[in-house]
Design a protein that fits this description.
7-stranded antiparallel beta sheet; 3-stranded antiparallel beta sheet; 13% helix
């Protein structure tokens, strides 16, 4: 491939891979925002995830990452089923609550109910799934959880919440 003469190509300055480089690059990657929930020994647990991915349509599989140091990890490590909630742009505070360490995630400000398979299901989300955990794959200081969809509801109103440049934001038209 040859460069087109009338296009100016910026000088490439590659950097060695570091945690800072990795984080800087992924701050530029816009991602949808989800909350993952499960039933734990002491009640419901949950966390905000921007790593949710559809893996397969047949069978319907999703994946998400969770740090092994996260407060929700012990429950997710033992759970047979998890809830996956796609958040709307009206749910920035909910996303922040589930992302904040030490927050009362299922306190009075969080509307939820027990859903299929005993999984906590959040109210007023764009869509939700209940999934059977299929595998937990070691990946550095995280685990990638593969889960098969067994129940769900895609009928919530609104537009998706997005995470970009270190903050929760809305899509622009």
């Amino acid at each position: 491939m040859t460069a087109t003469p009338d296009l100016v190509t910026p000088q490439l300055t590659p950097q060695l891979a570091t945690t800072d480089l990795f984080r800087s690059v992924f701050r530029r990657h816009a991602a949808g925002v989800a909350v993952i929930t499960a039933h734990g020994d002491r009640g419901p647990v949950g966390f905000t995830a921007t790593s949710l991915t559809s893996v397969s349509a047949e069978p319907p599989l999703v994946s998400f990452g969770i740090g092994t140091g996260a407060s929700s990890w012990p429950a997710i490590a033992r759970a047979d089923h998890v809830g996956v909630h796609i958040l709307g742009e009206h749910q920035r505070e909910l996303a922040a609550t589930f992302a904040r360490s030490g927050a009362d995630r299922f306190g009075p400000s969080t509307a939820w109910r027990e859903g299929p398979e005993g999984v906590p299901v959040l109210d007023d989300v764009l869509a939700w799934l209940v999934c059977r955990v299929h595998a937990r794959v070691p990946a550095g200081d995280h685990r990638v959880v593969l889960a098969e969809v067994v129940h769900g509801d895609p009928s919530g109103p609104g537009r998706p919440l997005v995470y970009h440049q270190g903050r929760f934001t809305a899509l622009r038209d």
